[in-house]
Amino acid sequence: MSDAGSDPVAVLRAEVRDWLGAHWDPTLSVGDWWRIVAAAGWTAPHFLPEQGGRGLDRNAGATVRAEFARFGALRPPGGLGLLMAAPTILAHGTAEQASRLVPPILDGWVNWCQLFSEPGAGSDLAGLTTRAERHGDRWVINGQKVWSSMARQADHGMLLARTDFDVPKHRGISWFALRLDQPGVTVRPLREMTGQAVFNEVFFDDAVCDDADLIGGAGQGWAVTQTTLLFERSGIGAGGAHAGFPTPGPQGGFLGRNAGDAAGDPEPGGDMIVKLADLLDLARARDRLGDPVLRQRFARLYTHGKVGQWNAERAKATAGGGGGQSVANLGKLLQTTIVKEAAALGVAILGADGMLASPQGAEGGRFSAAFVFSAASSIYGGTDEIQRNVVAERSSLGLPREPLAGRDGPYGEFLRSLRPPG
Q1: Contact of 350 with 363, CB cutoff 8 Å
Q2: How would DSSP label each residue in 243-296?
Q3: Which is catalytic among the residues 118, 232, 341, 363?
Q4: Cα dihedral: 125, 58, 112, 119 (round 10)
Q5: What's the pLDDT at 284?
Q6: Domain 7-104+239-252, what architecture?
Q7: What does the DSSP assignment read for 360-412?
């Protein structure tokens, strides 16, 4: 048995506890507390110190957040800005863009959403037709996005738009950091069968974006997008798809709240992802731990969870050698399986009591609502079919790529060929 003093995780936990003991002040506002947390490098401890982190390994963030919660302190800010926008900007943006756009994410003062999918460009993301036209030092945006998680609470969006229709489809795309609070942007909620509206559709009517917020250069957006998707799928594969509460940014309404009060708030939507420990507690309370069929399902769920942990370690090791793309896709596929299995097991433990997915149902409808929501896990972050294609075509399997309409030749000509004559 190793000495706890040489265990890096134990050392990190002790460091976090000591720091919290010296700095946690529940009387501060959420915004002021998050500034202190970010200045100490705890929001993204895996970032380099010059990027606002502490130079720790990628798993450090989960350890830090867990220790904050155990201490009773408000956790660091999270959300899609931290998961995807910040690392993408650090990887592809200029030094000026990184210094201007990343610190507000770490401080929790700006919230981000993803503006990728369109009604006609979901699984074939490169088929997008939202248009960005340059006018001097600005770009004018027109088009529509859909399935944009938390867009109503976001201040900025990671926008993919087509800036050149005269080149093949993958080469005419650009990645913008778009400010959403402007007259040309309309966000409409999409009500789900859970009764919630996490997803949204977003319309652009002559919205504008400064050229200074074009990340990676005009026409280089597809390469930038691969980085964003890698971070997204790696985060989902590690079980961190919904990390980040309270909601960062002014739209969430938390920045001025008392940090001590916010630390005790229940997380909205946090019950949509069911943990193994929650299921064990439920089975124990319902006296169903001895059910042999349920025990087999518990064993399967535990096994998938362990494989997920090993896959996350494999992804970290592979990324260190410059790879990791297909491993992230495998992790996302496995996490989808875990989300669905866990939700279904919760309903199975409840039996007939689990049929009502509302606050009036058993356990406040939590497990039933999670079961209804779990179908979305095969779609968000990239469909299961797309993940399998990536694993097949870009990993050691080396299978041939599927034919993709419009891949070669000017994409504008291809779109015109689809129009009916006359």
Answers
A1: yes
A2: ---SPPSGGGT-TTSBHHHHHTS--TTGGGS--HHHHHHHHHHTT-TT-HHHHH
A3: 232
A4: 20
A5: 95
A6: Orthogonal Bundle (1.10)
A7: TSGGGGHHHHHHHHGGGGGTTTS-HHHHHHHHHHHSTT-PPPPP-TT-SS-HH
The C-alpha angle with vertex 35 and arms to 33 and 39, in degrees rounded to 5, equals 120
Q: For residues 204 and 184, is the Cβ–Cβ distance under 8 A?
A: yes
Exposure letters 111-134 (e unless 16+ CB within 10 A, then b): bbbbbbbbeebbeebbbbbbebee
**Burial of 391 by CB count in 10 Å (0-12 exposed, 13-18 middle, 19+ buried)?**
buried
What does the pLDDT read at residue 243? 52
Q: How far apart are CA 271 and CA 365, in angstroms?
A: 10
Tokens found for residue 97? 């863009």
CA–CA separation, 146 and 116 (whole Å): 8
- Torsion region of 404: left, alpha or beta (phi above 0 gives left; psi -120 to 50 gives alpha): beta
In the structure encoding, which two tokens stand for residue 323, read together?
A: 């790879």
pLDDT digits (tens, 9 = 90+) for 283-309: 999 999 999 999 999 999 999 988 887
Look up 96 and say whether it is catalytic: no
Backbone dihedral angles phi then psi of residue 145, each to the nearest 5 degrees: -120, 160
The pLDDT of residue 396 is 61
Residue 167 neighbours by CB distance under 10 Å: 16
pLDDT, position 19:
98
Q: How far is CA 296 from the centre of its chain?
A: 31
Angle among Cα 319, 324, 330 to the nearest 5 degrees reads: 140
Rounded to whole angstroms, the Cα distance separating 95 from 107 reads 18
Distances from the Cα of 71 to the Cα of 61, 74, 314, angstroms: 15, 9, 30
Band (pLDDT 50/70/90 cuts) for residue 163 is very high
Q: Give the per-residue pLDDT at 241.
A: 41
Distance, in Å, from the CA atom of 138 to the CA atom of 212, rounded to the nearest integer, reads 8
What the block records as the tokens of 56 is 């720790």
Q: What is the mean pLDDT of residues 261-278?
A: 75
Q: CA-CA distance, 301 to 381, in Å (whole number)?
A: 21
Instruction: Convert the pLDDT of each residue in 166-215 to its tens digit.
Output: 999 999 999 999 999 999 999 999 988 777 788 899 999 999 999 999 99
Q: Please tell me the predicted confidence (pLDDT) of residue 244.
A: 55
